[in-house]
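re: that chain from earlier
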Amino acid sequence: MNTLLLQTAYLAPIAYYAVMAQADEVVIEQYDSYHKQTLRNRCFIGAESGRMALNIPVVRTGSKQLVKDVRISYQSNWQHQHWQALKSAYNLTPFFEYYADDLLPYYQRQTEFLIDFNIGLQETVMDLLDIHTEVRRSTDYCPADAAQVSDEEKKTTDLRDHFHAKHEAPRPMPPYWQVFQHRNGFLPDLSIVDLLFNLGPESSVYLMQKNMTD
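^ sequence. v structure.
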């Protein structure tokens, strides 16, 4: 069995979903410390003007928090802003209208904890991509030196630090058609929604074409 250990992510990058699609099991770490400016509350989409970041605001406590305890802030109308940004970026793509109704509820209802919002959205995206990998949350923190375990029957790969908000994935995915490619060129390592809205059902085939854990 091939098990991956991943951090939670907001509309994670395409490469993140590629490794999920090719794993037998995924464990989402929820007992690590929360850090600012990470994919836990940030994603990147392909807007008409180029690469655009969308950030979920969180409640600041002034002390270190575990990821599982981080609450979403609703002092600003970020849900409306994010949905309008997604519509502006992708309403001309072939499959935006096809998938929009599945994603819209996450921008209409309030979810208290960031990890619950991320995992709920992730489950919906996995259903749309026809990914059937088993996903569960960690029950305790796993030190890095203990996470990299391999034997003949089970292999656990620690990818908690593999995907970053500040630079592209170590092994970028191959180019695919993007709606604003004529303006911006191909923009790599965007959120999974960029692939979904541009390629639709072909996204599943795309995710399986390259092993991102090598």
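The chain has one domain: 2-207.
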